[in-house]
Fold this protein.
Amino acid sequence: MAKPFTSPRPAEYAQIPKPIFKKDWFTDSLLPGPNPKLSDLQSITFLANTPKYILKLQRKYGDHVSFFLSNRLFIGLFSPAAVHEVTVAQQHSFVKGVGFARMRKVLGEGLLTNEEPVHLNHRRMMQPPFHHGNLDGYVSLMFDLVEKYTEEWRSKDEIELAPEMMALTLEIVSRCLFGLDSHQYTKAIAHNMEIAIDRIERTMLPGLEKFDHSPISYFKKFEVASDNLADIAEEIINKRIESNLTTSDDLLGIMLQMQDQVSTEHIRDEVLTLILSGHETTANVMSWAFSYLNKNQKFRELLRQEALKQSWLDEKRAPTYKELEDGSPIATAILNETMRLAPPVWIAPRIATKDVVIEGIKIPAGAHVLVSQYVTHRNPRYFPEPKIFDPNRWLAPNFENSLPKGAYFAFGAGSRKCLGEYFALAEARLILLMVARSFELSGKFPKPQPRATYRPKGKVKNRVKVIN
Ligand code: HEM
């Protein structure tokens, strides 16, 4: 099977227009933004800390900015209305942009990186197991796994929250979607994912891909990590085929039954995609959520009170999805607020495939367009005192409905919206409530380490006190 790292972008996808180079762009059509003459310096500061860089641009120049990176035109659109235009109303005028070409080197043509005419077909095939109504079985597996992991905390004084959450969410996704105990792969996946997530972001600017096949160790390691992950995904599929469990109705079972419509390579790429998108994001949210709660005693206590009210916890049984959704307003507000300030997917880069007009601004075909959860979620107009972690804002009557479209989009929007939104919310609520019921955590607030996801830096050590 050809490996994602060396496979080219499929010819059946729409042609990407030529980028707009600095020399071809008239100065009088520039939006506010930094001086194009300093674009080399901008590329360096952009890569050093991208969320901080684009937030600074928004603060200085407003909701519509233009700048040049690697000599190419980039347009940042940060107002909710513009976000809605790019991700929903005019989504068909864009394809996924910088970063996604690098991501394709690891995930191949899975749902996160593929394009039409493949995307919608795959989405339809993969959607049923993720519907609200079909999640009870998964919630039951999640409950057993959270219990198994947290039971081990009882004999410990300290845990490393970040790796714990990565291992737990990886096992959840593997068991729920592939019917597999991921234990034997946890270390290998974590190690190779760490390298991949770093390189996808660090090397996302156009032009850096020319080093991919050079002997430079930094790039070489990217290829090795990508190949290792592909080998693991292939092994998962082969083991499943050998076990004769191909008719089971989890996601891998569904895909294996459709082998007449979807190639083994595509199935491998979907497995890779679900491994990455299905655990890394939720694990980061959990590490951030517990870290914010360490600083916010009031909400930590409110969460504990909510956990004490859960009858399913008294009865030592898994809840239904509905019980979780209806019975945990505090946990939900904490998660919304965590993903407002530390959105695991913090940027949605796109490329315009045709000329479009958004909020009166002409975006030429070939321009790179950036919308960013990290920036738009910090708009003081919709989130007063935006730097403050305050789950209370989500509890105000009608707050969420009063937000304009595009103001909050932690799970994206439009046809590329997150497939695993309800799955992620179910496991995140479950982890919050089950931990809050039995443990008190305390630890230092981590620094961010923004990469392809918005990660906390380091292992996020926390002391554990058993309270129940
Ligand atoms: C808190 C956790 C999560 C967050 C915040 C999140 C966020 C997102 C966002 C923002 C996108 C859209 C990216 C873009 O438009 O450029 C996305 C896409 C996607 N996510 Fe998630 N995600 C999470 C968890 C999950 C889980 C648990 C799964 C699977 C089990 C998953 C599977 C996917 C897939 C397959 C896509 C691509 C969908 C498509 O293009 O059709 N995600 N996610």
